[in-house]
Amino acid sequence: MMIWKFFPKTLNSNIINHKSIKMKKLLFFLILFPATIIAQKNNNGKVYDKHPALDIAEKFGQAWISGDTETLKSLVGEDFRMGSAMNTNPNYEGGDINNLLGQSSWMSKNFINISLKNKGQAYPDAIEYKRSGLFVQTFQEFIAWDKNNGFKIKTPFNAVFVFDKKGEKIMRFWWADNRAIWQKWNLSRQTIKNGTIYKDHPYIGKVRQIWYNLAQGNLDKVWKDFSPNARVNDSNSIDQNSKSLKDHQNYVGEVFSKFEFVSIDEVGYPDFIDYEGDGGVVLSWYNMTVKSIKTKKNIILKFHSQHDFDEEGMIVLETLYYNDRLLE
User: Are 213 and 172 within one domain?
Assistant: First the structure.
């Protein structure tokens, strides 16, 4: 049915005109919208990858890590301020020229092999802001060794230098780096207890039972204190990946299909280290003598083992050090 023929022509015309007006408004808005976005852009300066300020910032960085305090003094302006951008103290104000010189001098006396270089393919930028003046941004890596205890510090080191109006003197030096590595370094300079060592402990008894059951030929009982998901690290493994308990059991079975057990002797005494955190480890040393079924010759294997225990007293990791070439 043609519904439109029942409406007056004027009504039909008004509806069509109304739709046309809406379409024109929509089209005008779509045309205007991108122009509005473009109009919001504002050029606030220029970025340079070559600039005299970049040379000044580089000279500053090398003087800072080498303890060249005279050069540092010549590169900064009056009312110079510096500090870590990672500091979360709301009242933090950073340091002044005296802090800078003291920090530089201390580093040069206590760190060795210090380097401050661009990280990977990164490079610094000099930015001449229209409103804020001259800035330099660097993206580097700081590496140093503490000559007092051998601790290595390696951290990303991103810095911002703010220059004076002439672009000749550094007024602000703010940096961001990995605070965790500095905290770890700080702890390395202290004496901190991380557990208790026992020369007799039930867990030592569990490790002794491993060797006891091996000596008695009770291979099915050797693994009774191992977690089902335990892993085994063998120092002779080419790929250095840990093995599953089942794979290690198969390996031990293969060894004793070619060798007869003769004896096993504990060397010194085992230690159980009960760490401050979760779990602990038993360290032990053994001499095991086996006889080759083929050659009838005795072979002495010197073992060092480490057995890691979980909080339930189950062995979750066995690490073995010995020379398996003697079994060839």
Answer: no
